[in-house]
Amino acid sequence: MFVNGGRVNVVDIAQALNVDLSHVETAAKDLMKTDSSLQFVLGQLISADYVTSLADEINEKLQEKGVVDISDMTVVFDLPADFILGVVGSNLGTRIHGQRDLSNPRVLLTDWLIARHRAILRGALNASSRPVSVQSLVKEHSLNERLTSVVVEELISLGEISGILSGKGSKDKSTFIPHIYTTAQTAWIEAFLKSNSYIPYNAVKKLDIGDPKQFLKNRYSVGDEYLFLETCILSKTALDRVEGGLEDVAASGTWTEIGGLFPAGVDDQDVAEVIETLLTTKKIKVN
Fold first, then answer.
1. Integer angstrom CA distances of residue 100 from 95, 119, 270
2. Which of 35, 59, 122, 138 is the most buried (most CB within 10 A)?
Protein backbone atom coordinates (compact mmCIF):
# COMPACT_ATOMS: atom_id res chain seq x y z
CA MET A 1 0.00 0.00 0.00
CA PHE A 2 2.81 2.40 0.83
CA VAL A 3 4.44 1.88 -2.57
CA ASN A 4 1.09 2.49 -4.30
CA GLY A 5 0.33 5.72 -2.43
CA GLY A 6 -2.18 4.23 0.00
CA ARG A 7 -4.49 2.67 -2.59
CA VAL A 8 -4.12 -0.81 -3.98
CA ASN A 9 -6.37 -3.32 -5.72
CA VAL A 10 -6.44 -6.76 -4.05
CA VAL A 11 -6.42 -8.38 -7.50
CA ASP A 12 -3.09 -6.69 -8.23
CA ILE A 13 -1.72 -7.92 -4.89
CA ALA A 14 -2.81 -11.47 -5.61
CA GLN A 15 -1.15 -11.39 -9.02
CA ALA A 16 2.05 -9.81 -7.69
CA LEU A 17 2.37 -12.40 -4.89
CA ASN A 18 1.07 -15.23 -7.06
CA VAL A 19 -1.46 -16.30 -4.43
CA ASP A 20 -5.15 -16.98 -4.52
CA LEU A 21 -7.37 -13.86 -4.39
CA SER A 22 -9.36 -15.26 -1.45
CA HIS A 23 -6.21 -15.30 0.72
CA VAL A 24 -5.52 -11.65 -0.09
CA GLU A 25 -9.12 -10.65 0.66
CA THR A 26 -8.97 -12.47 4.01
CA ALA A 27 -5.69 -10.78 4.87
CA ALA A 28 -7.16 -7.39 3.89
CA LYS A 29 -10.15 -7.91 6.20
CA ASP A 30 -7.85 -8.92 9.07
CA LEU A 31 -5.73 -5.85 8.45
CA MET A 32 -8.80 -3.60 8.57
CA LYS A 33 -9.69 -5.05 11.98
CA THR A 34 -6.38 -3.87 13.40
CA ASP A 35 -6.34 -0.53 11.55
CA SER A 36 -9.70 1.29 11.53
CA SER A 37 -8.33 3.97 9.19
CA LEU A 38 -8.30 1.51 6.29
CA GLN A 39 -11.28 1.20 3.93
CA PHE A 40 -12.25 -1.44 1.39
CA VAL A 41 -13.85 0.17 -1.68
CA LEU A 42 -14.73 -1.78 -4.85
CA GLY A 43 -12.01 -4.34 -4.31
CA GLN A 44 -9.43 -1.73 -3.33
CA LEU A 45 -7.75 -1.22 0.01
CA ILE A 46 -7.54 2.51 0.77
CA SER A 47 -5.59 4.17 3.57
CA ALA A 48 -6.24 7.42 5.46
CA ASP A 49 -3.18 8.95 3.78
CA TYR A 50 -4.72 8.33 0.36
CA VAL A 51 -8.00 9.93 1.49
CA THR A 52 -6.01 12.99 2.59
CA SER A 53 -4.18 13.17 -0.75
CA LEU A 54 -7.49 12.69 -2.59
CA ALA A 55 -8.99 15.64 -0.71
CA ASP A 56 -5.96 17.74 -1.66
CA GLU A 57 -6.29 16.79 -5.33
CA ILE A 58 -10.01 17.63 -5.36
CA ASN A 59 -9.19 20.99 -3.78
CA GLU A 60 -6.46 21.62 -6.34
CA LYS A 61 -8.88 21.01 -9.21
CA LEU A 62 -11.53 23.14 -7.49
CA GLN A 63 -9.19 26.12 -7.05
CA GLU A 64 -8.00 25.77 -10.64
CA LYS A 65 -11.48 25.69 -12.22
CA GLY A 66 -13.65 27.40 -9.63
CA VAL A 67 -16.28 24.67 -9.92
CA VAL A 68 -16.08 20.87 -9.63
CA ASP A 69 -18.78 18.28 -10.27
CA ILE A 70 -18.59 15.11 -8.16
CA SER A 71 -19.73 13.03 -11.15
CA ASP A 72 -16.62 14.19 -13.03
CA MET A 73 -14.43 13.28 -10.05
CA THR A 74 -15.76 9.71 -10.07
CA VAL A 75 -14.37 9.34 -13.60
CA VAL A 76 -11.06 11.07 -12.83
CA PHE A 77 -10.33 8.99 -9.71
CA ASP A 78 -12.27 5.84 -10.69
CA LEU A 79 -14.10 5.78 -7.36
CA PRO A 80 -17.84 5.68 -6.51
CA ALA A 81 -19.69 8.96 -5.99
CA ASP A 82 -20.74 8.08 -2.43
CA PHE A 83 -17.10 7.56 -1.41
CA ILE A 84 -15.97 10.87 -2.94
CA LEU A 85 -18.95 12.67 -1.36
CA GLY A 86 -17.82 11.26 1.99
CA VAL A 87 -14.28 12.55 1.44
CA VAL A 88 -15.66 15.96 0.45
CA GLY A 89 -18.02 16.07 3.44
CA SER A 90 -15.26 15.36 5.96
CA ASN A 91 -12.78 17.80 4.39
CA LEU A 92 -14.93 20.70 3.18
CA GLY A 93 -13.81 23.85 4.93
CA THR A 94 -10.48 22.36 5.98
CA ARG A 95 -8.49 20.74 3.15
CA ILE A 96 -11.13 21.55 0.53
CA HIS A 97 -11.71 25.29 0.35
CA GLY A 98 -15.13 26.00 -1.10
CA GLN A 99 -18.82 25.32 -0.61
CA ARG A 100 -21.60 23.21 -2.06
CA ASP A 101 -23.87 24.56 -4.76
CA LEU A 102 -27.21 25.12 -2.99
CA SER A 103 -29.10 23.96 -6.09
CA ASN A 104 -26.96 20.83 -6.49
CA PRO A 105 -24.98 19.45 -3.50
CA ARG A 106 -22.88 17.32 -5.88
CA VAL A 107 -21.26 20.48 -7.24
CA LEU A 108 -18.52 22.37 -5.39
CA LEU A 109 -17.79 26.06 -5.86
CA THR A 110 -14.97 28.26 -4.67
CA ASP A 111 -15.75 31.28 -2.53
CA TRP A 112 -13.96 33.57 -4.99
CA LEU A 113 -16.09 32.31 -7.90
CA ILE A 114 -19.31 32.98 -6.00
CA ALA A 115 -18.04 36.42 -4.92
CA ARG A 116 -17.13 37.24 -8.53
CA HIS A 117 -20.60 36.24 -9.77
CA ARG A 118 -22.28 38.29 -7.04
CA ALA A 119 -20.24 41.39 -7.81
CA ILE A 120 -20.74 41.19 -11.59
CA LEU A 121 -24.46 40.40 -11.42
CA ARG A 122 -25.19 42.98 -8.73
CA GLY A 123 -23.59 45.69 -10.85
CA ALA A 124 -25.02 44.59 -14.19
CA LEU A 125 -28.60 44.09 -12.99
CA ASN A 126 -28.79 47.22 -10.85
CA ALA A 127 -27.74 49.18 -13.93
CA SER A 128 -30.35 47.50 -16.13
CA SER A 129 -33.61 49.24 -17.00
CA ARG A 130 -34.88 46.52 -19.35
CA PRO A 131 -35.28 42.70 -19.11
CA VAL A 132 -32.01 40.79 -19.35
CA SER A 133 -31.77 37.10 -20.22
CA VAL A 134 -29.59 34.90 -18.03
CA GLN A 135 -28.04 33.47 -21.20
CA SER A 136 -26.84 36.91 -22.32
CA LEU A 137 -25.32 37.58 -18.89
CA VAL A 138 -23.46 34.26 -19.02
CA LYS A 139 -22.02 35.00 -22.47
CA GLU A 140 -21.16 38.64 -21.88
CA HIS A 141 -19.38 38.11 -18.55
CA SER A 142 -18.11 34.51 -19.00
CA LEU A 143 -20.15 33.24 -16.06
CA ASN A 144 -21.21 29.77 -14.95
CA GLU A 145 -24.78 29.32 -16.22
CA ARG A 146 -26.21 27.35 -13.31
CA LEU A 147 -24.52 29.52 -10.70
CA THR A 148 -25.73 32.70 -12.42
CA SER A 149 -29.40 31.79 -11.92
CA VAL A 150 -28.81 30.80 -8.31
CA VAL A 151 -26.95 34.04 -7.52
CA VAL A 152 -29.61 36.19 -9.24
CA GLU A 153 -32.33 34.59 -7.10
CA GLU A 154 -30.18 35.06 -3.99
CA LEU A 155 -29.57 38.76 -4.77
CA ILE A 156 -33.33 39.26 -5.29
CA SER A 157 -34.19 37.58 -1.98
CA LEU A 158 -31.60 39.70 -0.15
CA GLY A 159 -32.98 42.86 -1.71
CA GLU A 160 -29.64 43.69 -3.33
CA ILE A 161 -31.29 43.92 -6.75
CA SER A 162 -34.90 44.90 -7.42
CA GLY A 163 -36.86 42.72 -9.82
CA ILE A 164 -38.02 39.18 -10.56
CA LEU A 165 -36.54 36.17 -12.35
CA SER A 166 -39.04 34.78 -14.87
CA GLY A 167 -38.82 31.45 -16.68
CA LYS A 168 -36.91 29.76 -13.85
CA GLY A 169 -35.44 26.41 -14.78
CA SER A 170 -35.51 27.16 -18.49
CA LYS A 171 -32.07 27.46 -20.04
CA ASP A 172 -33.19 29.77 -22.85
CA LYS A 173 -36.10 31.69 -21.26
CA SER A 174 -34.82 32.58 -17.80
CA THR A 175 -34.92 36.39 -17.68
CA PHE A 176 -34.38 39.04 -15.03
CA ILE A 177 -37.04 41.76 -15.18
CA PRO A 178 -36.06 44.87 -13.20
CA HIS A 179 -38.68 46.51 -11.01
CA ILE A 180 -38.08 49.84 -12.72
CA TYR A 181 -39.13 48.26 -16.02
CA THR A 182 -42.39 46.79 -14.69
CA THR A 183 -43.12 50.13 -13.02
CA ALA A 184 -42.63 51.89 -16.36
CA GLN A 185 -44.87 49.33 -18.09
CA THR A 186 -47.65 49.86 -15.56
CA ALA A 187 -47.33 53.65 -15.71
CA TRP A 188 -47.59 53.61 -19.52
CA ILE A 189 -50.67 51.37 -19.45
CA GLU A 190 -52.35 53.51 -16.79
CA ALA A 191 -51.63 56.70 -18.76
CA PHE A 192 -52.97 55.18 -22.00
CA LEU A 193 -56.16 54.01 -20.29
CA LYS A 194 -56.68 57.37 -18.62
CA SER A 195 -56.29 59.24 -21.92
CA ASN A 196 -58.16 56.84 -24.20
CA SER A 197 -60.59 54.88 -21.98
CA TYR A 198 -59.43 51.66 -23.66
CA ILE A 199 -56.21 49.84 -24.54
CA PRO A 200 -55.61 47.27 -27.31
CA TYR A 201 -53.80 44.05 -26.44
CA ASN A 202 -51.28 44.53 -29.25
CA ALA A 203 -50.15 47.83 -27.67
CA VAL A 204 -49.51 45.99 -24.39
CA LYS A 205 -47.70 43.19 -26.23
CA LYS A 206 -45.21 45.74 -27.56
CA LEU A 207 -44.13 46.27 -23.94
CA ASP A 208 -42.59 42.75 -24.00
CA ILE A 209 -45.61 41.26 -22.22
CA GLY A 210 -46.16 37.79 -23.66
CA ASP A 211 -49.84 37.35 -22.76
CA PRO A 212 -51.27 40.89 -22.63
CA LYS A 213 -54.88 39.86 -22.06
CA GLN A 214 -53.99 37.71 -19.05
CA PHE A 215 -51.64 40.42 -17.76
CA LEU A 216 -54.48 42.96 -17.85
CA LYS A 217 -56.93 40.49 -16.29
CA ASN A 218 -54.52 39.98 -13.40
CA ARG A 219 -54.32 43.74 -12.89
CA TYR A 220 -57.90 44.84 -13.54
CA SER A 221 -61.04 43.15 -12.32
CA VAL A 222 -63.19 41.59 -15.04
CA GLY A 223 -66.72 43.04 -15.32
CA ASP A 224 -66.06 45.88 -12.88
CA GLU A 225 -64.18 48.90 -14.18
CA TYR A 226 -63.21 47.33 -17.49
CA LEU A 227 -64.85 45.14 -20.12
CA PHE A 228 -62.55 42.57 -21.74
CA LEU A 229 -63.21 42.28 -25.47
CA GLU A 230 -61.59 40.32 -28.28
CA THR A 231 -58.83 42.82 -29.09
CA CYS A 232 -58.90 45.33 -26.23
CA ILE A 233 -60.29 46.28 -22.83
CA LEU A 234 -62.84 49.08 -22.60
CA SER A 235 -63.30 51.26 -19.52
CA LYS A 236 -66.66 51.58 -17.75
CA THR A 237 -66.59 55.30 -18.57
CA ALA A 238 -66.43 54.56 -22.30
CA LEU A 239 -69.08 51.86 -21.96
CA ASP A 240 -71.43 54.27 -20.15
CA ARG A 241 -70.88 56.81 -22.92
CA VAL A 242 -71.84 54.26 -25.58
CA GLU A 243 -74.89 53.19 -23.58
CA GLY A 244 -75.96 56.80 -23.16
CA GLY A 245 -75.60 57.41 -26.88
CA LEU A 246 -77.78 54.42 -27.72
CA GLU A 247 -80.44 55.52 -25.23
CA ASP A 248 -80.48 59.00 -26.80
CA VAL A 249 -80.97 57.46 -30.25
CA ALA A 250 -83.76 55.22 -28.93
CA ALA A 251 -85.51 58.14 -27.23
CA SER A 252 -85.30 60.56 -30.19
CA GLY A 253 -85.96 58.05 -32.91
CA THR A 254 -83.00 59.44 -34.88
CA TRP A 255 -79.80 57.72 -35.98
CA THR A 256 -76.07 58.01 -35.21
CA GLU A 257 -72.74 56.71 -36.39
CA ILE A 258 -72.11 53.88 -33.92
CA GLY A 259 -68.32 54.02 -34.28
CA GLY A 260 -68.37 57.64 -33.14
CA LEU A 261 -69.59 56.58 -29.71
CA PHE A 262 -66.38 54.60 -29.10
CA PRO A 263 -62.83 55.75 -28.46
CA ALA A 264 -60.90 56.10 -31.72
CA GLY A 265 -59.08 52.87 -32.53
CA VAL A 266 -61.53 50.34 -31.11
CA ASP A 267 -61.82 47.43 -33.54
CA ASP A 268 -65.11 46.97 -35.49
CA GLN A 269 -65.41 43.46 -34.08
CA ASP A 270 -65.32 44.82 -30.53
CA VAL A 271 -67.80 47.58 -31.43
CA ALA A 272 -70.26 44.98 -32.67
CA GLU A 273 -69.80 42.86 -29.52
CA VAL A 274 -70.46 45.82 -27.21
CA ILE A 275 -73.54 46.97 -29.13
CA GLU A 276 -75.01 43.47 -29.14
CA THR A 277 -74.35 43.10 -25.40
CA LEU A 278 -75.97 46.45 -24.56
CA LEU A 279 -79.01 45.86 -26.75
CA THR A 280 -79.52 42.45 -25.13
CA THR A 281 -78.76 43.17 -21.48
CA LYS A 282 -80.04 46.75 -21.21
CA LYS A 283 -83.06 46.10 -23.45
CA ILE A 284 -82.47 49.28 -25.42
CA LYS A 285 -84.83 49.45 -28.36
CA VAL A 286 -83.63 51.24 -31.48
CA ASN A 287 -85.21 51.34 -34.93
1. 14, 19, 56
2. 59
